[in-house]
């Protein structure tokens, strides 16, 4: 009898790293990787960072070179969408009618941009940024327009705004909340990024939504806001968040909440299916149950644990959430997890006005997250503070002369 393959559904970073991890951990059986895009797996951060800025070649985004999949005996099926998972027969059904049986299955279906449902939203030159062709199109647009409207002041929106301003484009950012990045950072640090962009000439409009886009024969021409005001623009980028692609998981009868519910080993409610990346809502040994973050680091690191579980191992995913951004002359790394109401103090070390500092979010005197801005090589001690769970002395924490491993409250 032919051995049933291990199957990976999802052709992004998590899917590619899952295939890599399975081979590295000794799996030498048949392996199928199915992705719905025509391009082989690539990383998404360059799409709004170096590649969009023109500082990196297109090929730099790909996870592996083209030959890697053949060399590692991975059956790579591009431009193929899985439309159903039949857990009873251990079969995935493709949109071309073909089926693939599986012994174990890794779900890594990622997220899709949330789309605006307003008049004019389907006009030409209204962009969303998720896939490589989206970045190609936006890159061409930034090089050819004078005025850009960015709807949404999250990470994608602000990175696009920075790229466009760097290219000399006039940029307006609309954010429905009173500050950009209010959810992930809280008001204290959200103000830092608001100031960064206004200092670089971005017009920042907050606390207002979009009623409709206006359009002419050539495409979008601007927007009418909820307060009745108008903004003229030659192109629009919408960055209002993403939704995890859960249709396959839900249709297969897996337990689904805000994502595919998995344990610390990334095991779903089905013993033969694991999940990784944006869709995984995981139990975390330190942070607790139900942790789902749409960060590049999860797609990079979770697949090694998923592969271990597929092979019968007992590895758990205990990495702290991590993300980074580069905007203008500001580089930032963030470790930990901040939720609204999940902290009671913010402590700064360094020069906030000069945007060269570390910020620490505290709950009951313990560090729950840290962000280093234009300060480098401090990730490990920040993570150690979070993992320790020990109370810290805030005066010491704020003093750059005190090493971070000496700031505990004694």
Q: Roughly how much helix do the residues carry, as a percent range?
A: 10-25%
Mean pLDDT across the residues is 96
* CATH architectural grouping of the largest domain: 3-Layer(bba) Sandwich
Query: What is the end-to-end distance?
Result: 65 Å
Strand tally: 26
Q: Total number of helical segments?
A: 11
Percent of residues in beta strands: 25-35%
Low-confidence stretches: none
Tell me the major beta sheet. 5 strands, parallel
Rg measurement, Å:
22 Å
CATH topology title of the largest domain: FAD/NAD(P)-binding domain
Shape: globular
Strand order of the biggest β-sheet? 3-2-1-7-19
Integer count of domains: 3
CATH classification, class level of the largest domain = Alpha Beta
CATH superfamily of the largest domain: FAD/NAD(P)-binding domain
Give the structural class: alpha/beta
Cofactor: FAD
Keywords: FAD, Flavoprotein, Oxidoreductase
Domain Reductase C-terminal: 322-406
Domain FAD/NAD(P)-binding: 6-302
List the SSEs and their pairings.
Layout: E1 6-9, H1 13-24, E2 31-34, H2 45-48, H3 50-53, H4 66-71, E3 74-77, E4 82-86, E5 91-94, E6 99-101, E7 104-107, E8 111-113, E9 126-128, H5 132-142, E10 147-151, H6 155-166, E11 170-175, H7 182-199, E12 203-206, E13 210-216, E14 219-225, E15 230-232, E16 235-238, E17 242-244, H8 247-251, E18 260-262, E19 273-275, E20 280-284, E21 288-291, H9 296-310, E22 322-327, E23 330-336, E24 345-351, E25 356-363, E26 366-373, H10 379-388, H11 394-398
Parallel strand pairs: 1-2, 1-7, 2-3, 7-19, 9-16, 10-11, 10-16, 11-12, 18-20
Antiparallel strand pairs: 4-5, 5-6, 8-17, 13-14, 14-15, 20-21, 22-23, 23-26, 24-25, 25-26
Helix pairs in contact: 1-9
């Amino acid at each position: 009898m032919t051995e049933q393959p291990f199957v990976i559904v999802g052709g992004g970073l998590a899917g590619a790293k899952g295939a890599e991890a399975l081979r590295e951990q000794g799996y030498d059986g048949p392996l199928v990787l199915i992705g719905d895009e025509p391009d082989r797996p690539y990383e998404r951060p360059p799409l709004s960072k170096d590649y969009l800025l023109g500082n990196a070649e297109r090929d730099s985004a790909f996870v592996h070179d083209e030959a890697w999949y053949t060399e590692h005996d991975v059956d790579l099926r591009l431009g193929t969408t899985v439309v159903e998972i039949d857990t009873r027969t251990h079969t995935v059904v493709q949109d071309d009618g073909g089926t693939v049986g599986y012994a174990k299955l890794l779900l890594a279906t990622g997220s899709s941009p949330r789309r605006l449902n307003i008049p004019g939203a389907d006009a030409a030159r209204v962009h969303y940024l998720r896939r490589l062709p989206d970045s190609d199109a936006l890159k061409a647009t930034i090089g050819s327009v004078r005025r850009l409207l960015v709807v949404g002041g999250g990470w994608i929106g602000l990175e696009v705004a920075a790229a466009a301003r760097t290219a000399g484009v006039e940029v307006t950012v609309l954010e429905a909340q009173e500050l950009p990045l209010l959810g992930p950072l809280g008001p204290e640090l959200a103000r830092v990024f608001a100031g960064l962009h206004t200092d670089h000439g971005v017009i920042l409009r907050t606390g207002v939504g979009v009623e409709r886009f206006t359009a002419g024969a050539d495409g979008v021409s601007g927007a009418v806001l909820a307060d009745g005001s108008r903004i003229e623009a030659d192109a629009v980028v919408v960055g209002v968040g993403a939704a995890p692609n859960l249709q396959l998981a839900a249709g297969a009868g897996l337990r689904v909440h805000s994502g595919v519910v998995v344990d610390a080993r990334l095991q779903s409610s089905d013993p033969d299916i694991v999940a990784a990346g944006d869709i995984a809502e995981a139990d975390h040994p330190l942070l607790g149950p139900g942790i789902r973050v749409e960060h590049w680091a999860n797609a990079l690191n979770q697949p090694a644990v998923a592969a271990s579980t597929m092979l019968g191992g007992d590895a758990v995913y205990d990495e702290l959430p991590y993300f980074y951004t580069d905007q203008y002359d500001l580089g930032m790394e963030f470790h930990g997890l901040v939720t609204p109401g999940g902290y009671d103090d913010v402590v700064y070390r360094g020069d906030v006005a000069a945007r060269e500092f570390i910020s620490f979010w505290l709950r009951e005197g313990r560090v729950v997250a840290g962000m280093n801005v234009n300060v480098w090589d401090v990730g490990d001690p920040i993570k150690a503070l979070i993992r320790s769970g020990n109370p810290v002395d805030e005066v010491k924490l704020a003093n750059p002369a005190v090493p971070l491993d000496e700031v505990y409250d004694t």
